[in-house]
Design a protein that fits this description.
By secondary structure, the chain is of the alpha/beta class. Helix content is 40%, strand content 14%. The radius of gyration is 24 Å and the shape is globular.
Length: 488
């Protein structure tokens, strides 16, 4: 076990009271019964004598903390009143969690975000060794880490930045000098892709790392841009291991000119009546981004049975927030959950045109001749029999896995309830037309959809081909028939 190592295990949705409502008070380490919690607990017990559970209701709790009974609070749904960042920061101090030199955080992005905020003012090195992995692969990686007796790999960080404090000092200097003077002084160019996001503000990540190195190694001084390479495998990796967020931006923060300039947000919903289509699209984006956001590891209980879903994709921004990249619904009653399962969880391209389009882009991008086989629809028995000798099913399985990995790692979604089929289809068509006709919803320069064989996907910036460029919302329609659905 590593000295001064703290492991933080996320609580789980499945609890002992689900099977036994009369179980009464249970210690925390036995209260959560889901497979992810069980594996995470094994990791914690293997690598550290000191570990805590991060509960969305109770905050940081000891494994022997007595939980009085069932609860349903989650970081993913703010309306469930999860513990606040201020409370978590206070618990770090009161529980003396700030004494640890290294902290390993497990769990999804909501837990990582909570841990980053809670330990912000400490000198602890934060490690998220399984960040970004789909839950199944994360569990496999955790088991492998236990088998190899390696809680996190430090090889990539051993010669670079080691502490959060040095990064914070570099950020503070960046603020004092201003971006242009800071970069000129240390000999860095403006970042074209990777930006460090701190307290909601972007900073040139490679330059920050180079200057932070100088603070940690005053005898050597700051690194020059030519001393090391930037990108996901170096700068992004190093900063994320310390608990910072690094985001791959579009051209907004680079020297490249923007494709367009977004129109200002309407001051009130009433102003949308006479506003342009872009103004309605702006307000639509703002309202949707205020809804609870789900990733693929979603709880079915939190998804309505009937409704519309809208997807966001990593690296895609519009109107100052996450760009809508797909709008979808369902025709049958109570089928929304099933539709999302087909996209995110079931490895079958012929049951989800969305999955098929992702595969097309991955294969086309890599000039993979398997694209021709991928296009074949094997839904019916007759089709399977007709093409069975043409398909490399081992290859198809691998492509399905790539599609699943991409979707689970890069997409998030919001949903809102719409009870009737007629209303769902009308709203879906209006939203698709409004977004596709918007003049200020550009794709990023490296959007995967730009590799699509489908011209409509490439041109629209949306993962769909139907209902594009048709009838958008009027201001009156948007205010009366769409906005109330978001405000329930």
């Amino acid at each position: 076990m590593i000295e001064k190592l703290l492991v933080i295990v996320p609580c789980g949705q499945k609890k002992v009271w689900d099977k036994d409502p009369n179980a009464g008070s249970i210690v925390a380490k036995d209260a959560y019964t889901g497979p992810p919690f069980v594996v995470n607990k094994l990791f914690a017990e293997h690598f550290s004598e000191s570990w805590v559970i991060l509960s969305a209701k109770h905050g940081f709790i000891d494994p022997d903390f007595e939980i009085p009974g069932p609860y349903n609070v989650t970081f993913k749904r703010r309306s469930s009143n999860p513990v606040t960042n201020a409370t978590l920061s206070e618990q770090v101090r009161s529980l003396q969690l700030d004494q640890f030199s290294d902290v390993v955080g497990l769990g999804g992005k909501e837990y990582r975000s909570a841990i980053k905020d809670a330990f912000h003012s400490t000198s602890a090195r934060l490690h998220f060794p399984f960040a970004g992995l789909p839950i199944g692969k994360a569990m496999q990686a955790i088991k492998k880490a236990i088998t190899e007796d390696i809680p996190f790999r430090t090889g990539k960080t051993s010669s670079m930045i080691q502490t959060r404090k040095s990064v914070i000092r570099a950020i503070e200097e960046y603020e004092r000098l201003g971006r242009d003077h800071f970069l000129e002084h240390y000999g860095f160019r403006k970042a074209k892709s990777y930006m460090l996001i701190h307290k909601g503000k972007p900073y040139d990540s490679k330059a920050i790392v180079g200057v932070a190195f100088g603070y940690e190694n005053p005898g050597q001084g700051p690194l020059k841009s030519s001393d090391f390479s930037g990108g996901a495998s170096t700068v992004q990796f190093w900063l994320e291991q310390l608990g910072f967020e690094v985001r791959k931006m579009d051209s907004e923060m680079s020297d490249k000119p923007k494709k367009t300039s977004p129109s200002p947000a309407p001051k009130s919903l009433s102003e949308v009546n006479n506003d342009s289509g872009s103004g309605i699209c702006h307000k639509l984006h703002q309202l949707l981004n205020d809804l609870p956001v789900f990733d693929f590891d979603f709880s079915m209980d939190e998804i309505p049975k009937n409704g519309i879903y809208l997807l966001f994709e990593n690296g895609e921004q519009a109107h100052g927030t996450n760009r809508i990249v797909r709008i979808g619904t369902h025709t049958g009653d109570n089928q929304l959950r099933s539709r999302l399962t087909q996209h995110f969880l079931n490895s079958n391209k012929d049951r989800s045109i969305f999955r098929k389009n992702i595969g097309r882009c991955l294969l086309n991008r890599d000039n993979d001749p398997f694209l021709e086989q991928w296009e074949l629809d094997l839904t019916t028995r007759a089709a399977k029999d007709a093409h069975v000798d043409q398909i490399d099913f081992d290859k198809q399985k691998k492509v399905e896995e790539l599609v699943t990995d991409y979707m689970q790692s890069n997409f998030r979604f919001v949903v809102f309830e719409v009870p009737t089929k007629e209303q769902r289809l009308w709203l879906e068509a209006r939203i698709i037309s409004t977004v596709s006709r918007c003049e200020v919803c550009p794709t990023s320069s490296d959007w995967l959809g730009s590799h699509s064989p489908k011209q409509k996907i490439r041109e629209s910036g949306l993962w769909q081909v139907n209902e594009l460029y048709k009838t958008p919302f009027t201001g009156e329609e948007f205010n009366e028939k769409c906005v109330p659905l978001f405000q329930r």
